[in-house]
Amino acid sequence: MTTTPVVRAEHLRKAYGSTLAVADVSLTVERGEIYGILGRNGAGKTTTVEMVAGLRRPDAGTVDVLGLDPTTQAAALHEQVGLQLQESALPDRLRVREALDLYASFYADPADPADLLDLLGLGAKRDTAFTDLSGGQKQRLSVALALVGRPQLAILDELTTGLDPHARRETWAVVEAIRDAGVTILLVTHLMEEAERLCDRIALIASGRVAAVGTPAEIVALAQGEQVLRVRPATPVADDALLAALAGVPDVREAVVEDRALVVRGGGTVVQDVLVALARHDVRAADVRLERASLEDAFVSLTGAGPDDPAPSLQAATTAPEA
Ligand SMILES: Nc1ncnc2c1ncn2[C@@H]1O[C@H](COP(=O)(O)OP(=O)(O)OP(=O)(O)O)[C@@H](O)[C@H]1O
């Protein structure tokens, strides 16, 4: 793409006391895309987008959003950037339409609240009080409020957390409709399925660093090193003989026999090479299965992160190798 990026962040860093929330994050969001920031809880996603939105000042690094510096040009930035942050709450009795009218009054040229409610499927709820909305409707209202200033960029943080699968899908459709209406979207999520379904590109964040950037397919391909091939011989072959047949095959990372089947993990051209090697040793396959990596496999393989890993600290960041 040749247009100027909507967001260009370089080497952002932010610590809270001794907790290094963001160690080194660089990212570039192009106009018109849904750009996902994917990472487990505590990876530094929210802190990253808060720096992009001008809500937090980076300890180091630079951010440019639509040609503006968020730390020194916050007012101008807020005219162009819509924010939907985690757990947004409104007064219980405020009605949907009142909330939109209130937010619209902050802008010189707001979107038409009725159009926005229709876009978000809230037209029938215009007179409903905030407290009487379902979780999904509250989330969609928070998106409507983020969009009422006709932003060029919308930042949506953990938009579907806590929603049931149906409400989640409805919300995804809304996000796509917003993108189709020309708004660039920076989407924070810890849900693989959400990132895979919605995002044009994803930055995988682990321990405050970018572990990988690409389309969902590119990220899965990056982790294709973790291909798993499972071959069941047509006639019984001794375990040792099966393993010996693989001698000299490049890119084999691990080979074991499980339940009479040869299970090989590896990268590159490991699949063809293993099948050729077996054929050379007269091992015919009754059943061959290739387990392809999912975005979730890619996430684990690229970030090395388990769901319960501790948050990084300044001390850990200086002594432990990068994830
Ligand atoms: N205001 C704060 N004060 C102190 N520590 C904080 C603060 N905000 C975040 N942290 C810590 O910084 C780290 C990164 O948090 P951050 O919220 O940016 O991550 P996240 O990826 O958005 O996680 P989550 O999805 O749980 O919100 C975590 O260890 C968190 O506990």
TrEMBL record:
Swiss-Prot/TrEMBL GO biological process terms: response to antibiotic
Enumerate the PROSITE patterns for this protein.
ABC_TRANSPORTER_1, ABC_TRANSPORTER_2
In terms of SMART domains, this protein maps to: AAA (SM00382)
Chief location bin = membrane
Domain ABC transporter intervals: 7-232
Q: Which UniProt keywords apply?
A: Antibiotic resistance, ATP-binding, Cell membrane, Membrane, Nucleotide-binding, Translocase, Transport
Name the CDD domains for this protein: ABC_DR_subfamily_A
Q: How does it sit in the membrane?
A: Peripheral membrane protein
Q: What is this protein called?
A: ABC transporter related protein
Species this chain originates from: Cellulomonas flavigena (strain ATCC 482 / DSM 20109 / BCRC 11376 / JCM 18109 / NBRC 3775 / NCIMB 8073 / NRS 134)
